[in-house]
Amino acid sequence: MFKRFIIVAFLGLALMACSSSEQEEKNKQVSYQTYSAEEFFKTTNVFGSSINHKGDAVLVSNDGSGIYNAYKVPLNGSQPTQLTFSTEESIYVDSWFPNDERFLFSADKGGDELDHLFVREINGEEIDLTPGSGHKANFLSWHKDKQTFYVMTNERDAKYFDVYQYSVSDYSRQLIFENTTGYSIESMSPNGQFVALSKSHSNSNSDLYLVDIFKKSLKPTHISPHEGNVEYFAYTFTQDSMRLIYATNEFGEFNQAWSYDIALDEHSINFKAPWDILFSYFSEDGKYQITGINADAQTKIEIKDVASNKTLALPNMPIGDLRGVNFSADSKTLVFYVNSDTSPSNLYVHKMGSNSVKRLTNSGNPAINEENLVLGEVVSFKSFDGLDIPAILYKPKQAATQKVPALIMIHGGPGGQSRKGYSAYTQHLVNNGYAIIKINNRGSNGYGKTFYHLDDKKHGDHDLKDVVYNKKYLQTLDWVDADRIGVMGASYGGYLTMAAMAFTDEFKVGINIFGVTNWVRTIKSIPPYWEAFRQSLYDELGDPATDKERLHSISPVFFGHQVKKPVLVVQGKNDPRVLQIESDEMVEAIRSGGTPVDYLVFDDEGHGFSKKANRISASDKYLSFLKEYL
C-alpha cells in the first residue's frame, strides 16, 4: 500500500507579496488529498449487457478479484455472489439462460481478442461452445421461444462471420447463414426469421440487407437504396419482428434512427436529435424503447412508451450518465448503471411507479473522497485553419495556487472519441497535479460526418496540427505552465503521440501506449476478421499497395532519431492489432538518437490492460515517468 498523504498547496515566489493571512486563507481553500494508483484502482469496474436482468438479480462482470469475473447482484441490495473464479483470463458475461441459472460468457487468451463463447452450468462446470483455435465467436441474441440462441463465429473462414443457432437443451447447433461475400452481421429478429446485414463500400458509404431464414433462398435483400456517400447500420428489431430499427446519416450530419416495415417495405423516422443516435433497443415485452444519444461526449438516455410515444417520467436520478438501462420481463422494474467523472459505474434499481431509486453496488473506494476528484469541462479551441476542436479539460486542485504541467490525452481510433466518465488513469494523474485535456481532434466520432472525414488520408498532418494547437490553447490558460506540456495516448492516440514527438519539437514528453508506429506493416497485418471493413480502412488511411510512400512518411518508427525529448512506451505482448514489434522497433529507433526512452511490456495483455495489477503498474509508471521528466 502506498502511503496516503495530505498536501496543502503553497504559493510560488510570484505571490510572496501577499499577506500571510491572505496566503493562509488561499491555502485553506485549496486543501486536498492525493492518492496512489493502488487506491484509485481499488474501485470495482462493473458492467453487464442490457439483457442480464432476470427475476430478483442481475448478472454482471466486475474486477473486484483483480480480474473480471461473473457476479450475481441481488436487487434487494444484499451482497453479490461471485459465480466464476478465473485468475488468468477475464470473463465477460453475455446473458443468463432465460429459464434457469446457467449463463453465457466470453473470454480470450491473454488479450489475443480471439474470444470463445462459454456456458457456465448450474454445477459450476464451464463448457466452451466454440472450441478450436484461431477463430473468434460472439453471442448474438436469444430466440423469443427461449429454447435456442444465436452465435456468430469465423471458424469456417477467418475473414467472415457465419451465424449458428444453438439448442438450449444439448448445445447442438445448426448453420443458418453462411457469409461468403463479406457482410457484417448486425442483428437477429426475435422470431429467428430475419438477419440484418450491412455491407461497407467505403469509409463513408454502406448498405443494409435482410436475409429471410425461412425461405429456401438465403439471398440478402437490399433495403437501403441511395445515391452518394451515405452510411447505414442496424440497431435492433422490434419485439414482434415486424420492423427493423436502423441508423442512417442520409438526412443530415448525424445518425438518425429510422424504422423499416418489413412486410410493407416502408421506411419512416423513428428518433432524431442534434447529435448521433448511439443505440436503440426495446424492453423484452416491447413496451419501452431505450435510445442513447451522444450529446457532446456524454450519453443521454431517452425512454419512450411505445404505445403512446411519450417519454417516460422518471424520479430524480443520481448525478452522471445512465448506462446499461434494462427492464425486467414484465417492465415493472428498471435496472441501470450511473457513471460520472468522479465515480465509477454503480448499479441502481427503480420500481416503476415509485419515487425511489435504490443503489445496489458500491464500486468506488470508500477511502477516496470524491471532493478530491475533478469533473471534466467540455471546452473547444480554434485549430490552425479556424476549425473548432472540442475537448474535455480536467483542472487539478493544485492549479488554484500554482501553475501546473499539462498533458494532451489522445483517444484511440482513428475515429474514436474521448467521452465524459470515470477513468482511474485520468483521476490519478489529475489528483497528482497534472492538467489533462482529452482532445477530440478532427476525425473523431460524434461531431457529424463532415468533421469525421476531415482527417481522411491526412493523418500525421491535420490531426497532428490539431494537437499542436491544443498546446497553444493550454498556453493561454493562466494556471498551466506553458513550458511543461506533454502528450500521451493509446493505439491511434499512441501513434499521434509518437508523431508529435518525431515530427514536431513542441512537447516535453510523450507516453505512447501500444501506439501504431509503422502504418505500412500495421495495415498489412490487420486481423483476418477485419476483412469486411478493409476497404474502409484503406479509405481512411491508405492502401499499402498504392500509398506506401505516404504511409512510410507518416510512420514515426522511420524517424525515431528525430525524437529529442523523453518517451515512455507501454505495450501488451499479445496485442493482435498493434504488434509488439512496432513498439520494439520504436524504442530502438529513439535510443539510436540518444534520447531517453523507457519501455514497459505486459506479457499477459493485449490491446488494453484487463488485469487490475497491470493497470496499477501502468498508472504508477506514467506518474513516475512524468515526475522525472515533466
Give the gist of this structure:
16% of the residues lie in helices and 36% in strands. By secondary structure, the chain is of the alpha+beta class.
Helix content range of the residues, please? 10-25%
In terms of DSSP E residues, the strand content is 35-45%
In terms of structural class, how would the helical and strand content be classed? Answer: alpha+beta
Summarize the biggest pleated sheet: 8 strands, mixed
Q: What is the global morphology?
A: globular
Count of separate DSSP helical elements:
11
Please give the number of β-strands: 39
Radius of gyration, Cα only, in angstroms? 25 Å
Overall pLDDT score: 92
How far apart are the first and last residues' alpha carbons, in Å?
25 Å
List unreliable stretches of 5+ residues: 1-28
Strand order of the largest sheet: 32-33-35-34-36-37-38-39
Can you walk me through this structure?
The structure is a single chain. This protein has 630 residues and is an alpha+beta fold. It is 16% helix and 36% strand. It is built from 11 helices and 39 strands. The strands form 9 sheets. The protein has an 8-stranded mixed β-sheet, sandwiched between helices. Strands 3, 4, 5, 6 and 7 form a 5-stranded antiparallel β-sheet that branches. The radius of gyration is 25 Å and the shape is globular. The model is unreliable at 1-28 (pLDDT under 50).
